[in-house]
Design a protein that fits this description.
The complex is a heterodimer of chains A (about 325) and B (about 150). Chain A is built from 10 helices and 8 strands. Chain A is an alpha/beta fold and about 325 residues long. The N and C termini of chain A lie far apart (about 60 Å). With about 150 residues, chain B is of the alpha/beta class. Chain B has one domain: 3-Layer(aba) Sandwich (Rossmann fold). A 4-stranded parallel β-sheet of chain B has the order 2-1-3-4, with helices on both faces. In chain B, helix 3 links the parallel strand 3 and strand 4. The chains are: A alpha/beta (about 325), B alpha/beta (about 150). At the A-B interface, helix 5, helix 6, helix 8 and helix 10 of A face helix 2, helix 3 and strand 4 of B.
Chain lengths: ~325, ~150
Amino acid sequence: MIQQKIREKAKELLSKKEVDLVIGFVKGTLPLRTTPRFIRNPEKTDRLIWNPFCENNLATYLHKFRQFKVGLVVKGCDARSITALFLEKRFKPNQLFLMGVPCQRMVDRRKVEKAVPGEILHAHEQEDLIIVEGDDFEKALKRDDFLYPSCQACTHRNPINVDVLLGDPVEEFPLTEIHPEVKEFEKKSPEERWNFFEKESGRCIRCYACREVCPMCYCAECFVDSSNPKWIERGLSPSDLQFYHMVRAYHQTGRCTGCGACERACPMEIRLTYLTQKLNQDVKELFAFEAGIDPDTPPPLSAFEIEDRQEFIK
Amino acid sequence: MEANWEPKILAFLCNWCSYAGADLAGTSRIQYPTNIRVIRVPCSGRINPLFILKALQSGIDGVLVSGCHPGDCHYISGNYIGRRKSATLKRFLEYLGIEEGRVQFSWVSAAEGGKFSQVVNEVTQGIKRLGPSRRFGKRSDEFRVQSSE
């Protein structure tokens, strides 16, 4: 069982002092939640768990531990984030030990909450079902009907460039030319698209949870905090909210692995991955580049080809 | 929209080619629409996409970015980098719903005074057809679409 393998490997790494700490998931305080845990004591590794609620991208914590050797539990998307960070020289080689876990895809806790008639008190996985219990109800939901949007379209469930794979590889869905959600969105008229974006970004409260949870957002001074030049103000003017989301997405061009952590962290449930997936798709189409796959190809916006496409230039 | 509305268009011109080309258009007394305001940058690769977004947010109706032809960049490869940024930004803005034609790009060399005026003509006509920029501007907070909640 994957959970047992994670515990054993973490204990081995800490006992042999191959790493200074292990970052993994333990049971959360609420049902349907897990919480990241930073373990330094090999005896405490029996708390580590693995289930379809392990939704965080743990790579985001690595920026706080740059001087340590760290062991990390990674899904397919997380492992690609780490490769993308290596490309940006955020870590030295051999500083990390990656425990890759083939991902059964993560359950959307918000969808589950909406599908039951009361407060959820317990939830657990049972084969391909999620059993949800409340005071006066118990429901069995099919896990695959309640996945996050980012997980539904995932084509990289098996982690690559990892030190060990703790589980049998799972079947990957075929790579599609165009991301299905992006394809649907592009069918709308410009006005419909703008109205959707305006409505989504209009709920933003500028808590920056999306920024904090993203492994690729690690700038010492974020553009929102810059006062010279001052790009946007701190208030909730709709125009500034739009600017924030446009730019945060655009700063991920060629770097985002589509993990969806931003969307999951948002307290206002704003749709975010439909923006970054469009950029990922364009980067693939224009420059034949996908973030986090090859640790040797330079990032697309730092490189060029003489023959890059320019049909849009007069 | 008033009948006498004239668009305000910002043109980011690279110092070595496009700005010189614009200058040549001027000394040759070639007429072109006066809707454009020029900002001189050292290279088209200097353009931070945030410049374009800030312009649109400030009420500018259209943006033109112009640089040296591929292979002729004064800094060797700046325009190649700028080309990649321009491609991704243009597609992203159109995906968001900003009308196609608000942000345009061109290669104009220092000898192409005629081409510069032609480009400015085309861009201005296009933006006149699109109308004032109502999406994403600070002042468009007044024109905000009432979403049904």
